[in-house]
């Protein structure tokens, strides 16, 4: 990491400034987007050997390409370049000022059980290093305005709940109630947003968790043939899992409302992916889908007995499926969510609150 920072310092010392960065986007009032999260924001591993792992060991968790994920679709609508992964940076200050993706597959809010996985705090440390470098090398005033005019995108929690329920399946006792577990996660997310605010971040997009009880993996885990299928909520989804996730989303949105009221100039948007995906699953044909249960890429019941080991395993009609693999939506679903998040499109109504991402982008700080 020291070598990485030294390269950045050298780049700045050669006379680079932030004036040219984001010129094309000046009308949108956004300088750049910085992304933190799990596999919903990046297919690979946030590590020094990122290029190797991303290409060879990602197991195609998001159709083998980051470009169909929500933050990339939203960046395109903002007129911003795709955010490059943190460890793919080549030492160019211009690269960092164009936005950074700190995300990593299987990243969690809580400290992970595996040293190969990242936590929210790990990514926050990388953000701190980046913003501190901006201040040191660009000057306090320039860095202050650049950070305030940038957008930070947070998408965590999915893998915390996946881990929770998988531990239940294995017979390991979970020491938290549903409310306690959600409260712990929400508290850490709130602390993260407060820490970003202290670093002069003012614009934040915070994504809720999609309905995990509707994903192919959990439909398989909870499948009980003798009971007529899953313990479902009328759409084939696992009610118990969705109730836990919904509890987290509700608590998180309530805290975001409080933060917006408490923190001067804060503009934090909560995007309710749960409700958006649930509407699609409840009325799949209305939204143009034929299969709302099975993964497009995978084998066995629900396409979830063997995961997506190769893109060659994918179905021929990706656009007819809601789910790409165990837990990830298809590009078509992400496109619908991005349209709604951006402008409050009627098909899914306003999934982002208290305002759309478009309004967030075009409202000056």
TrEMBL record:
Signal peptide start and end residues: 1-22
Entries under Pfam families matching the protein: Lipase_GDSL
Source organism, top-level taxon: Eukaryota
Any one of the GO BP annotations: lipid catabolic process
Keywords tagged on the record: Hydrolase, Lipid degradation, Lipid metabolism, Signal
UniProt GO MF annotations: hydrolase activity, acting on ester bonds
Family to which the UniProt record says this protein belongs: Belongs to the 'GDSL' lipolytic enzyme family.
Matching PANTHER family: GDSL LIPASE/ACYLHYDROLASE FAMILY PROTEIN (AFU_ORTHOLOGUE AFUA_4G14700), OS12G0126100 PROTEIN
Protein name: SGNH hydrolase-type esterase superfamily protein, putative isoform 1
Native source organism of the sequence: Theobroma cacao
Taxonomic path: Eukaryota, Viridiplantae, Streptophyta, Embryophyta, Tracheophyta
């Amino acid at each position: 990491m020291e070598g990485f920072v030294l390269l950045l310092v050298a780049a700045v010392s050669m006379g680079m400034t932030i004036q040219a960065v984001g010129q094309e986007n000046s009308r949108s009032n956004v300088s750049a987007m910085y992304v933190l999260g799990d596999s919903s924001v990046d297919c690979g591993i946030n590590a020094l050997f990122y290029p190797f792992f991303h290409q060879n060991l990602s197991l195609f968790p998001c159709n083998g390409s980051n470009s169909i994920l929500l933050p990339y679709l939203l960046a395109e609508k903002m007129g911003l370049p795709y955010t490059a992964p943190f460890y793919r940076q080549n030492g160019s200050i211009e690269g960092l000022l164009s936005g950074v993706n700190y995300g990593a597959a299987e990243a969690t809010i809580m400290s992970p059980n595996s040293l190969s996985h990242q936590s929210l705090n790990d990514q926050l440390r990388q953000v701190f290093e980046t913003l501190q470098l901006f201040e040191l090398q660009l000057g306090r005033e320039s860095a202050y305005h650049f950070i305030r005019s940038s957008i930070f995108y947070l998408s965590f929690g999915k893998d915390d709940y996946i881990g929770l329920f998988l531990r239940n399946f294995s017979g390991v006792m979970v020491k938290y109630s549903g409310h306690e577990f959600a409260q712990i996660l929400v508290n850490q997310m709130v602390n993260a947003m407060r820490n970003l605010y202290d670093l002069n971040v003012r614009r934040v997009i915070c994504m809720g968790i999609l309905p995990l009880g509707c994903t192919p993996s959990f439909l398989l885990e909870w499948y009980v043939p003798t009971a007529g299928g899953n313990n479902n909520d009328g759409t084939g989804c696992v009610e118990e899992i969705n109730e836990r996730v919904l509890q987290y989303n509700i608590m998180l949105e309530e805290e975001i409302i409080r933060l917006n009221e408490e923190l001067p100039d804060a503009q934090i948007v909560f995007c309710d992916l749960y409700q958006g995906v649930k509407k699609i699953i409840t009325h799949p044909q209305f939204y143009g889908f034929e299969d709302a249960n099975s993964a497009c890429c995978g084998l066995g019941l629900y396409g979830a007995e063997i995961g997506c080991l190769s893109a060659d395993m994918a179905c021929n009609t990706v656009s007819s499926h809601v789910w790409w693999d165990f837990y990830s939506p298809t590009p078509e679903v992400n496109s619908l969510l991005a349209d709604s998040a951006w402008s409050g499109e009627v098909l899914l109504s306003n999934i982002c609150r208290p305002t759309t991402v478009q309004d967030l982008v075009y409202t000056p700080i």
